[in-house]
Amino acid sequence: MKLTKLFVFLMIAVSLVFPISVFAEPTTIDWWHAMRGPRGDLVDKMIGDFNASQSEYKVVGTNKGNYDEVMNAGVAAFRAKKQPHILQVFEVGTQTMMLSGAIYPVFTLMKDAGIEVDWSRYMQAVLSYYMNADGNLMSMPFNSSTPVMYYNVDMFQKAGIAPLSKTDPITWDELGEITKKIVDGKIAPAGMVTAWQSWTQIENYSAIHNLAFASKANGYEGLDCELQINNPQVVKHIARLKSWADDNRFMYGGQKYQGPSAEFVAQNVAVYMDSISAIGKLKKSAKDFKWDAAPLPVEAGTAKLQNSIIGGASLWVLNGHPKKEYKGVAAFLKFLASNDMQEYWHKGSGYFPITIDAYDSLKSKGYYDAEPLQEVGITQLNRAIPTTISRGLRLGYFVQIRNIINEELELVWNGKKSPQEALDNAVARSNEQLRTFEKTYK
Amino acid sequence: MIKRSFFKSKYLPYLLILPQMVVTLTFFYWPAIQGLSQSFLLSDPFGRQSKFVWFYNYIGLFTDPLYLKSIFTTFFFSLAVAAVSLSLGLFIASMANRALQAKALIRTMLIWPYAVAPAISGILWLFLLHPSYGIVALGIKEWLGVDWNPVLYGSDAMVMIVMASAWKQISYNFVFFMAGMQAIPKSLIEAAAIDGASPFKRFWFISFPLLSPTFFFLTVMNIIYSFFETFGIIHTITQGGPGGSTNILVYKVYQDGFVGLNLGSSAAQSVVLMSLIIVITFLQFRFVEKKVQYGG
What we know:
By secondary structure, chain A is an alpha/beta fold. Chain A contains 20 helices and 9 strands.
């Protein structure tokens, strides 16, 4: 009894003399993200591993809803000076974040924290989306994906079409013949369907063929950029899809992925274009038939094929916290980029590993022999060094611009506008958005 | 003799209305003024810089043909919702009022849909009518041979959101019509019946005029409902598509402000929306209410 009392006294005495050093709480680092469900579990595990690996910092991850809710939460918190250290923001918010004045660029963060990072060992097509015009990384890529083409192997077999290559893309003309066989042979009611039409059919189509999406190097080099998607080649591509829509080789399934994915799973179409991160979902839902993935089709006779571009989100470090805490943020970001974490994340979520080392390590372990689907996107993404056009898009009010493109494309599909009219209109409307954005930041 | 009480203190009445004033000021006037001032600014979402631009945001709106189209869409939509839900609500109420058995049960069952949140109602109708996975939609396409596709055709999408929005509101209208009908003295209807008026005439010349205050109240409520609360339905079913054909004003405010972070334009849109509602309500009270008969 006496001994306990003595111990308590001793404890109090010690804590009074050394208030911090003995009972030092780890510094808390807040991370607001949009990962839920299975992806949320992966994130929690990664955070847990980091917290267990050291005792100085404690990362607390909070799911704040979907992408736009997370961004809104970050904006509101920043205005109230209660911002988290790390905020996950979707790729279309990149320009707004860069100009926000609320961020601590990742390349300076790493430099200030004294962490050497060999950026050349990262996947360049991923990094380039989040670099400024000088080639410095502004935010840490986290979940990145790219669109590929899924197809129904059973239907292809029935139509007498050989399985497609996982590395070399077919041409759009070939896809036209394939879908014709599928529809004419009454193997499926429609040929192909696409999710996220602006992203897969215009943004990625432009990048792969090195066509400017907007002037000023897609907006990287100035706010006074203008959209250029009404160029003859994109118009021709949309016109082709429209003519396919008329003879059922193409069907429109909605702006997002739910409708298109349902059509593919229900075997109403033979070909389905969507992000590589759909692999996991398809594995669960498309069990009645064999399916496979191939790179997105390309135009015949393209001299040099470019990389496709990414979608997804990156981690932005927000300023306004004590310097010491940023050391922890840097340590955490470095931890996330480690091979173990990247391999875990890639295997679990289907998103790209962001470093070449993690990719090589997975390769040497034979992961891609067992999971060849996972490599289709990576090959397509890495098939060329990104040009100033294929490295990404940097547009203000990009959310609205995607909406505009979606709206105008829908008017093409339901026959209210010609492809040329619709794309001209999309450009004119988007330019108005870009001018307002420019005016805001001038 | 009328009894009047007087309070000695001059300040007590002010004190008593203070809570109400505080609530109204903080939750209505303050945000409304903020919105009004924001609508004259161009500012970045993080609030680091903002510029006073006079009517730039408003000019942008009213020179945009799509915004004008969105106003038209909103009016069409709210009139359609009000018409469908009022007429069906009234019809069901007059039927249920004549039910002979299990009256209470029937009433309770009919009120239920009102308890469903708009977003849930949207999801329910989506599962019925989505062209790719909707059960009813598959039936429509299979057996009726109709090319039903709200994902592609604007008119189909409009039909779908009107149905989803009106369905919920039918129950609400039903409750009020039911209560209104029960307040109508039976003797009036019986007297008319003795005079040889058909059930339809009894309804049209007796019940309906006596229901007019309820009808008026419900029209206002339904229009306000379809202007604002249908947000959840639009968000879950069409997101304003296809081709902007179901992009009603309140959804556009959300799209531009919360998703697109164009705060100035979004604020200007809310001011326009607020003014529209004020004008509509004013007109309703000014012209429609005159024709309404309160009391017997």
